[in-house]
Amino acid sequence: PRQIKRICVIGAGYVGGPTAAVLALYNPDVRIEVLDRDQRRIDRWQSGHLPIHEPGLNNIVRATRDASRRTGQDEAQDAEDVRRQPNLFFTTNSQESISNADMILLAVNTPTKMDGVGAGRATNMRALDGSVNDVALYAKPGTILVEKSTVPCGTAQRIRKTLDSLRPGEEFEILSNPEFLAEGTAVKNLMNPDRVIIGSADTPSGHLAAAALASLYAAWIPTSQIVTINAWSSELCKLVANAMLAQRITSINSVSAICEATGANVDEVAKSIGLDKRIGPQFLKAGLGFGGSCFRKDIASLTYLAESLGLDEVAEYWDQVNTYNELQRKRFARKVVKRYDGDLSGKKLAILGFAFKKDTGDARESPAADVIKTLYDEQPAEIAIFDPYCNEEDILREIQPFMSADNSMIKIYADPYQACSGANAILVVNENDQFKVTAPRRSGSVSGQITPLEKSFEEGSISSVSDTEMLSPVSPPVSQTKPEKDYLAGFDIALVTSPPCLEDCPDCK
Ligand code: NAD
Questions:
Q1: I need a surface site. Which of 40, 41, 212, 255 has the fewest CB within 10 A?
Q2: Interval between CA 250 and ligand 1 midpoint (Å)
Q3: Is there an atom of ligand 1 within 6 Å of 11 CB?
Q4: Does 254 share its domain with 289?
């Protein structure tokens, strides 16, 4: 295959940034430039404060982006750092970056179209088309284009048409290489993926292009895990993977509604069915439903595809996954309202966690926003939000659409204790480790029992200090060891089912 010396990644977002960093780490002889039109984002990638929070990302960016950085603490590492030349760069100069690239990865956003034909379901291709136009303007002939963004089935053909009309007679191979990383574990997923899928045209030059991309991944991924298929299958498999993951969450969430109405415990049901090897234990945690920028839109895209093909029943089937997901969020918020007999006036509600899941600052399509909307409509005295990783700006972007001009009711705190101070209820909305409640010390119990919301409501077993209650859509994770910083420690609001230990026994030390 052709040797790739320079890569341009268009889109310095949650996918483009980490993907480029890991590719750069394992391919020290390849120069990787990440291009974005958002100057602010590029500035942050070049700074000490990256624009996205991902565990492990800082170190990789530092090792690949910065000149040798001897710490004097680890000789072997220092020697390695000195040998290594920076090979990861961030830029807004599209002409220079695109024209020098042997390969271009398109990692721009592909959100759901909000207006016009297919609104709410079809994919908005504006950013992708924009980046393809830039490629057509500047790329040298023979540059390999790679779809990293999640795109509708048939996009490779669409790109080919654009290039054929703007650069007639010139050869460009278009590959599909969907990204399966999950936010919060992006680095781990990129370093140790279950598989890498590369879709290409079924032609000799298509296969050669696929081999060129595969050789970059082969720098750290066993070739048996690099799967080459046709471009259509590759584009579709990303939508299907996300739709099936989301469907599992929706399935267990629908079961949680049954559990709440009966005496069953959804965690016990999930554990029991997960032991069946055909089902497996992953993605069976009931909660507020899925959020984030991908699952909903990818199911919408799959639905739209099915509809466009005249497969209405297929479309309806997948559409239901999104419909139920929204309902799950409302169910939780309505329970909170019901808990206060439909009257939240004078109440302060603290929301712990705003990002759509743990270990990320990504607030896009966060379930927290939907919960807050329902609560906001009830006009409580205050909704206090704390998230360890979200920017205030990103939180406001999500909640502003339903806020009235007077937004003094919603406050965003940088300190969790202040957010919770004087709160009537604390709603744990994502599962960041900081929010883990350490089991209260008591004898005879190995791991503390924390009562899930539904049980607390039914059995009235909330134990509270003053008027404070902790509400969680499902039982918060129970840890046996004290987390680094136990944000809830000061509140003594864990929902306990057995009495605290009064003796100074070894178990409780
Ligand atoms: P993002 O919004 O974080 O980043 C996209 C970036 O592209 C933005 O910084 C934007 O300014 C830039 N951009 C848009 N048009 C551009 C242009 N013409 N030229 C230069 N820059 C341009 O998006 P993301 O979350 O990284 O997602 C990117 C794609 O990857 C989407 O298709 C998404 O579905 C897919 N994906 C996302 C995830 C995830 O967890 N976020 C996982 C797998 C796949």
A1: 40
A2: 25
A3: yes
A4: yes
User: Do residues 192 and 310 share a domain?
Assistant: no
pLDDT for 143 beyond 60: yes
CA dist list (Å): 57 to 53, 168, 187, 345, 459: 8, 41, 6, 43, 44
Question: Ligand 1 within 6 A of 173 CB?
Answer: no
Q: Which of 33, 147, 173, 179 is catalytic?
A: 179
List the catalytic residue out of 113, 238, 297, 347. Answer: 238
* Residue 331 falls inside a structural domain: no
Return phi, psi of residue 352, to 5°. -100, 115
Residue 277 falls in the annotated catalytic set: no
**Cα–Cα distance, 359 to 381 (Å, whole number):** 29
Please check whether residues 258 and 141 belong to one and the same domain.
Answer: no
- C-alpha to C-alpha distances, 118 to 236, 314, 448, 471, nearest whole angstrom: 18, 16, 50, 38
- Is residue 332, in this structure, part of any structural domain at all? no
Strand partners, 35: 10, 91
Contacts of 485 (CB under 8 A, 6+ apart): 434
Tell me, yes or no, whether 50 and 139 share the same domain. Answer: yes
Residue 5 C-alpha to ligand 1 middle, in angstroms?
24
- Does the active-site annotation cover 436? no
Q: Which residues sit opposite 144 in a β-bridge? A: 103
- Atom 3 of ligand 1, residue of closest alpha carbon: 13
Separation of CA 75 and ligand 1 centre (Å): 38
Q: Which residue has the higher pLDDT, 72 or 172?
A: 172
Task: Give the end of a domain, one of 214, 231, 248.
Answer: 231
13 CB near ligand 1 (under 6 Å): yes
pLDDT given at position 68: 65
Tell me how far CA of residue 269 lies from CA of 245, 248, 317, 420, 449, in angstroms: 18, 14, 24, 32, 17
Q: Is 12 in the pocket of ligand 1 (CB under 6 A)?
A: yes
- Asked if residue 335 belongs to a domain, the reply is no
CATH number, domain containing residue 498: 3.40.50
Is 75 annotated as catalytic? no
Q: What are phi and psi of 52, to 5 degrees?
A: -130, 150
Q: How many CB atoms lie under 10 A from the CB of residue 280? A: 12
User: For residue 478, what are the domain limits?
Assistant: 340-508
SS (H, E, C) 183-229: CCCHHHHHHCCCCEEEEECCCHHHHHHHHHHHHHHCCCCCHHHEEEE
Give which of 147, 197, 152, 117 is closest to 300, Cα–Cα. 152
> What would the pLDDT profile of 470-509 be if each residue is shown by its tens digit?
665 544 444 433 333 444 443 333 322 222 333 333 433 3
- Residue range 323-377, pLDDT digits in tens: 999 999 898 888 889 888 999 999 999 999 999 998 899 999 999 999 999 999 9
> Per mean pLDDT, which range of 89-98, 146-155, 394-403, 467-476 is the poorest?
467-476
Q: Where among 231, 263, 295 does a domain terminate?
A: 231
DSSP H or E run through 91: strand 88-91
Q: What is the mean pLDDT of residues 453-479?
A: 38
